Amino acid sequence: MRRTAAILAASALATLGVLAASPTAAFATPPAPDCDSGAGRYVCLASTTGSTLWSISITQSGFTNSFTVTTPGPSISAGCSAHSVIHIASTGTYQGTTQTSGTTSILCNTGPWR
């Protein structure tokens, strides 16, 4: 009985050690970029610092064009066409590690900024 209790105690301690060392909860994912559109342009701001890699997909009339752009900071601004939908995510330094954000989708607004 003592041997079984010792094995169970060692197993419980080992499990707690693994759970305590698990890095999954150590860093949060950055929020999706904050974007706005007006006058045929879109502007997005990421929650990252330093150089930012943007993953962009633009959909118009059922066709999608996907590409990446690197900017020296956490913002991007570009022109867009009426009725196009921009899907954008950022990758950069967030809470000390390189992380990829969620995706923001925004409709290109060719009218005035709101």
Order of helices and strands: HEEEEEEEE
CATH superfamily: Immunoglobulins
Overall radius of gyration: 22 Å
Tally of individual helices: 1
Shape: elongated
Please report the total strand number as a whole number: 8
Q: Cα distance, first to last residue?
A: 73 Å
Percentage of residues in helical conformation: 10-25%
Integer count of domains: 1
For this structure, the CATH topology is Immunoglobulin-like
SS class: alpha+beta
The CATH class designation is Mainly Beta
SSE inventory with pairings:
Layout: H1 2-21, E1 34-38, E2 41-45, E3 49-60, E4 63-71, E5 75-79, E6 85-94, E7 97-100, E8 104-107
Antiparallel strand pairs: 1-2, 2-5, 3-4, 3-6, 6-7, 6-8
Tell me what you see in this structure:
The chain is of the alpha+beta class. It has a single domain, classed as Immunoglobulin-like (Sandwich), CATH 2.60.40.10. The protein contains 1 helix and 8 strands. The chain has one helix at 2-21, and strands spanning 34-38, 41-45, 49-60, 63-71, 75-79, 85-94, 97-100, 104-107. The strands form 2 sheets. Strands 3, 4, 6, 7 and 8 form a 5-stranded antiparallel beta sheet that branches. It has a 3-stranded antiparallel beta sheet with strand order 1-2-5, with no helix packed on it. A hairpin with a 2-residue loop joins β3 and β4 (63-71). The N and C termini lie far apart (73 Å).
